[in-house]
Amino acid sequence: MNFDQKICNLLIKIPKGKVSTYKYLAEALNCKAYRAVGNALNKNKSPEKYPCFKIINSSGFVGQYKNGQKTKIRLLKKEGIHIKNNKINLGKYLYKFK
């Protein structure tokens, strides 16, 4: 299984109404390649199946999305995630991989 496939397998584990970070995603893969994680997410050809919009910055900032930040915010809100000033309360919405 390649790096991108491993990321996709982790994305589908994030429950509805939760987000994770590039850092936690990389750590779940036993690496510190945060940029590589971002690049893999950007190449995701099936965002409906592999919800890459659920990955945000460690600061809680929504961050970028290949379909645009407004689309990412709309998708996150659709999941019930409250966003204020383009930030998400990690204390409430963060999912940490086990």
Can you give me a brief rundown of this structure?
With 98 residues, the chain is mainly α.
Give structural notes.
The chain has 98 residues and is mostly helical. The chain has five helices and four strands. The chain has helices at residues 3-11, 22-28, 34-42, 69-78, 90-93; strands spanning 20-21, 55-56, 83-84, 87-88. A hairpin with a 2-residue loop joins strand 3 (83-84) and strand 4. Helix 2 crosses helix 3. 26% of the residues are buried.
Class from helix and strand fractions: mainly alpha
Give Rg in angstroms. Answer: 12 Å
SS element count, helices = 5
Shape: globular
Distance between the termini: 19 Å
The percent of residues in helical segments reads 25-40%
For the biggest β-sheet, the strand order reads: 1-2
Number of E strands: 4
Give the biggest beta sheet. 2 strands, parallel
Topology (elements, then pairings):
Layout: H1 3-11, E1 20-21, H2 22-28, H3 34-42, E2 55-56, H4 69-78, E3 83-84, E4 87-88, H5 90-93
Parallel strand pairs: 1-2
Antiparallel strand pairs: 3-4
Helix pairs in contact: 2-3
Keywords summarizing the entry:
mainly alpha; 98 residues; single chain; two-stranded parallel sheet; 40% helix
